[in-house]
Every structure is written in structure tokens, then in C-alpha cells.
Amino acid sequence: MAHQYDNQTQLPKEPIDIVIDPFKRFIHIESTSGVVLLLATVIALLLANSPLSENFLSFWKIKVGFTLGSFEMKHSLQHWINDFLMSVFFFVIGLEVKRELVMGELQEFKRAILPIFAALGGMIVPAAIYLSLQIDAPGARGWGIPMATDIAFVVGCLAILGPRIPNSLRVMLLSLAIADDIGAILVIAIGYTESLDLGMILLAFAGIIIFLLLMKIGVRNVAIYLIVALVTWFGFHESGVHATIAGVIIGLLTPTTSWISESRLHHIVQNALHYMQGEGWSNSQEHYTKLRELERATRKTISPLKRFEADLHPWVGFVIMPLFALANAGVVIEASVITHPVAIAVILGLFLGKPIGIFLFSWLAVVLRIASLPDDINWGALLGGGALAGIGFTMALFISGLALVGDLLNAAKTGVLIGSFFSAGLGFILLLYFLKKPPEKV
Question: pLDDT of 2-48, one tens digit each?
């Protein structure tokens, strides 16, 4: 009888669920998006260094778009991925940043100051190492490349190390990566914007103002917000400011509170149940109206930030980021490229600059008594975590594409891949050495 009750309280099962359920469990494992991203990177590298190289690399240069009267918007597939699809990635980054600022580790100054200091060190020192090797050289413009941390790969590495990683170190590294992302966004907005179209900037800001007004008057239709977001994206895209900034801004504007409280939902459900037990339930129009009201109330009990973050994470982790890797990680590896000054500067920036910067600035914050090191983290573990933060991949490749072209870009991408690989290896070794394996539960 109890088993029958359980079945009645769950959604009905269909034959296709036998296939879908394991897939759902797979995509909700923290490390899997990093595994898929790594697989896409390996495929891109293999194809770029195979007899199919020319066809593979030229595929991403195919131009697609549309013409509307005298206006034409046609770009390469790589451009659409980097400027349009990656705006969705940056939108999710904006959501994560806002969540941490409003509800997470970055909302309290004392808890946020250590990862913020660590992130500053992890940006300043790698950029300084890069510039010291490339000052007055053609590749100097790539100073922002080794500044970023790839959250997906770091989360994947932490998941592989499992219970050995204390929760405080996990939280600190994720908070550091979020603060790092804020820095990378500022770098993109300030450091890699050349010429500006004032009219298009005004269009973008008009979109932001309309977005805020819609929220103020209580518009709840997602389609309307999507149209305004597209106008904002278009304004930034045509203005000279990188279009992905639109995603970040919209993410930061997304509300963190739900429209309907759980107590109000309880009353709405009770009202619906009361109605369902009456004679009026036989009226099909009323039937539909009540169920739609109940459905809407249930959805609006979840805040827009939580809903979009949950809905978009699988698309970002398993579609957008792998596509980005396929389109951008296809580097022709040659001995001359590996030893190129730009590649060396990126490798050293990631491999040495990240752990040194994070360790040094964290130590400075503790010595100045601005922050304190969590009880279950030792300095060796922090150094290991800093090494893992040298996995720059997604954002580093992204900035490479903004900063450099031709052989310099190829060298920078090679440096990102090698530097990230070495950083992951060093991080694993240090964390395995400095963190004891927890005793097994009997």
C-alpha cells in the first residue's frame, strides 16, 4: 500500500526514462563537464594535427548570418560561438557572481577578503611575469591571457581528489575563481576595447534601462526579457565593447528573490485542492485556468537566478564550452611554437605566476590580519590550490583570441594548453602531498 502511495506522489515513468535518467545523473556530477571539455580539447588538438587539419580549421571560418535591407550581419562560426554563445556562458558567470555576492561566500567581508586577495595576486603576478618577458614585444598585448582561472577544470580536479579536499579549501578556490572571473571581465571590458561607436553604446544602455524598468513594473514574461537582452547584446556587439559583457550585465541584474513566497504557494495549493474537490472542477475552462495558475505559482516560487542557473548549466557545460573548445583549441603543435616567446610567457604566467601570486597575497592578507587562514587548510594545501588555479583554459583562450592574431595567437593558445596541463599536474602533486587522506568509515 505504501509502495502504491509512493508511485502516486511521483511523476509517471515512461520507457525513454531508462535512457534519460542515467544521463541526467551524469550531467549533475560536478566533474563531468570538465571531462567533456577535456575530451573536446583533445579532439580539437588531434584533428588540428592530423591530415584533416586544413578542413577542420577552415570549417570554423565558414561565414553565416543574415541580410536585412542594407544591413548585413555575417560572421564566421567561430565568431558566433565566441561572441554569441559565449555570452550565455558569461550570463551564467554573472549569475554565479551575483549569487556569491548576495547569498554566498563573498557577501561577508571577513569571509570574502582572503579569496579576493588571493584572486588579486593570481591576476597581478601572472600578468607581471608575462609583461616582464614581452615588454615592447609584439605579444605584449596578451598580458591578460594568464590572469584567468577555468572553474570547470578546477571543479573537475577537486572532484577527482574527492574527500581529501577540505570543504573550506573547495569553497575558497571556487570563491577565488568567481573573484577571478570578475577581474577577467574587467580586463576584457577595459583592456581589449579599441574603437567605440557611441550610438551603439547608447542602444546597449537603453536595453539595460528597459530591462530594469520591466523588472520595476513587474513584467514576468521571459520572452520579453530575452528580446531586450538580444537588443543589449547587439548594441555591445556593434559598439566595439566585447558583446559577452552584455551577458555579464544581464546576469548581475537577474533577481535573487522569488516572486511568490513558499507560504503564499502553500495557500494557492490549498485553494486549488479545495476547488478540485468541488463540483466546479468539471468545468474544463476553470479546470485549465486553475491548473495554469498553480503551475505558474510553482515556477515563480523559485528565484529567476536559481532557475536560470539550474536550467542553463547543462547547456553551458555540455554544449557551449565543448563547442568553444572545438573552435578554439585546435592548435597546430610544432617545436618552434612551443619555444615561442609568447608561449613561454603564458606557460610561466600560469604555471608559476598563479601559485606564487595566490600564495603571496594570501600570506600578506593573513600577516596584515585582514584575513585568517581556515583551520583545516595549511599553507602547502593553499599552494596546491593556487597551482590548480593555473588551469586557465576557457577564459585564457578567450582572451587570447581578443588580444592576438596569427602566429602570436597560435603560440598563446599552445602556451595556455601546456601551462594549464603543467598547473594541473603540479596542483595534484602538492595537494596529494600536503593533504592527508581522511580515514575510511567502518
Answer: 444 456 566 677 676 555 555 455 445 556 777 888 899 899 999 99
For residue 426, give the amino acid letter. L
Nearest to 37 by CA among 419, 417, 394, 424: 394
Q: How many CA atoms lie within 13 A of 282 on its CB side?
A: 2
Q: What kind of fold does domain 33-64+72-193+242-257+303-434 have according to CATH?
A: Na+/H+ antiporter like fold (1.20.1530)
Beta strands in 69-162 (DSSP E): 71-76
Whole-structure pTM value: 0.78
* 359 vs 368: CA distance, rounded Å: 14
DSSP 333: -
**Nearest-angstrom CA–CA distance, 119 and 266:** 43
Sequence ranges of the domains in the chain: 33-64+72-193+242-257+303-434, 262-298
Q: CA 402, CA 385: separation in Å to the nearest integer?
A: 28
Distances (CA, A) of 284 to 279, 287, 290, 291, 372: 12, 5, 10, 11, 63
Q: Which amino acid is at 103?
A: M
Q: Compute the distance between CA of residue 151 and CA of residue 175 in angstroms, rounded to an integer.
A: 10
**C-alpha cell of 390?**
593555473
- Determine the Cα–Cα distance for residues 428 and 304; give it in Å rounded to an integer: 37
- DSSP letter string, 308-332: HHHHHHHHIIIIIHHHHHHHH----
